[in-house]
Amino acid sequence: MSMVTINDMAFVCIALFTILSALGMVLSRNIVHSALALIMTFIGVAMLFFHLDAGFLGLVQILVYAGAISVLIIFAIMLVMHGEPNQTNRFNPSLGTHLWGAYIALLMTAGLVAAIWFSGLPEVKGRTVEDAVGLLAELLLGKYVIAFEVAAVLLLLAVVGAIILARGVEEK
Amino acid sequence: MEHLFTDTAYMLTSWMVGLGIKPVWADLILLVVQWAIIIAIVTVNVIILIWLERKVSGFIQERLGPNRLGPFGAFQTIADAMKLLTKEDIIPSRADRWIFMSAPLLFIVVAVMLYAVLPLGKDMAVVDLNVGLFYFISLGSLSTICLLMAGWGSNNKWSLLGAMRSVAQMISYEIPLAFSLLGVVMIAGSLNLGEIVNAQNRYWFILLQPVAFLVYFIAATAELNRGPFDMPEAEQELTAGVYTEYTGMRWALFFLAEYTNLVAVSALAATLFFGGGQGHWLPSWIWIIIKTYLIMLVFMWMKWTFPRIRMDHLMAFSWKVLIPVSLANILVTGLGIEFFRGMGW
To answer: Which residue, A83, A148, B42, B300, has fewest beta-carbon neighbours within 10 Å?
Structure first.
């Protein structure tokens, strides 16, 4: 029988925290509470990254998801919300929607598993990368520079589109 | 003197190991002790800072400031703190109770956690993190959510408007803040705060990166929601913004966190641009205290000198001035580094 180390205990705690917050997000009736639970989920995922010695990724997770994107989500919710906050995240009673939800969730899971399975990611065991940030930078700006730039252009297009949607086009 | 704290920490660990405690647990206990000391220093420091702020504002506005309690009114803040501690803790009946109650606590937790990576002297960071600077920025971004929680939880229009304003402002100014620090990172070649301090052996980075420092200073003022960028709590139009519904100790926690953030941001400025603990004659931890306090005095000077800026001007200033300037600074820094490398420096 293998020993349960502090490391394993930490993993179980973090995983429980993440899963419970995710459940809170799905099950909460108040959509603002859902958004806050989502932030807790993001922080849990960041802690998982820390636990895997990927500190930089964990911090990116906090900065981008917990610190910025979720704030935008809450903003959007608050701006379009009306009526009682306790009724904002109601459950849809029809069976058909449940089935659709389950189907999409299953598809997502299968897709993620397949992506991880077939990507041939090298397994790193028992050694920590010293200069993780430098290596990441070299990969992003070297081997994967085109994908990186395309993602940047995509985001720029999204921003321009959002501005046009928000302001409308001037009629001549 | 220089090694006072590091030696004490070392002695403490070896003493604990001598008692038969495993090194892992000894390190953990040391961490807890360090945290306790930091929290104690931060709290006591805020008492001094609030008194100082009132004195400085009095001096700038040609009045006396607090002068009744103790010498130069030095005990005024202590009396204020006692008053706040004994006040009733009012929670509005239609507030979102848990969010309302936890927001100030989380705000102060985030503020104190910033200190984990700050080198408060040579080799005196609690955690010597490889990506220390990035840790500072990304944890700082969490404080927006605490303000949003406070504004939402209060169920008050002023609170919500204040929260909206401060979040919009903090998100916009986070970008130039991070960009301005990139110039420093490029020259130092590291995200580790200790190594950035060491890289300033010859020149302080304020000499090499004056534009970055200006951008950092302005953006940090906005991040702190301090005057002249304190639109989120503009008393004349929003009563007190996010803090409208808070009373007693919960309100005091917000105040505490704001000053804690002020110290952290100033200490980071001292670390990145003014050589951190480097200096002659005095030990490094005294140098960093002196530098931090000088920077904080400039923050106070700014607050009491400039009038508030209108909200839309504030946002436009970030997006149309600060971000382009900080981007240009990164470009010039990169070119400069390549140029000097080519010259063989």
So the answer is: A83
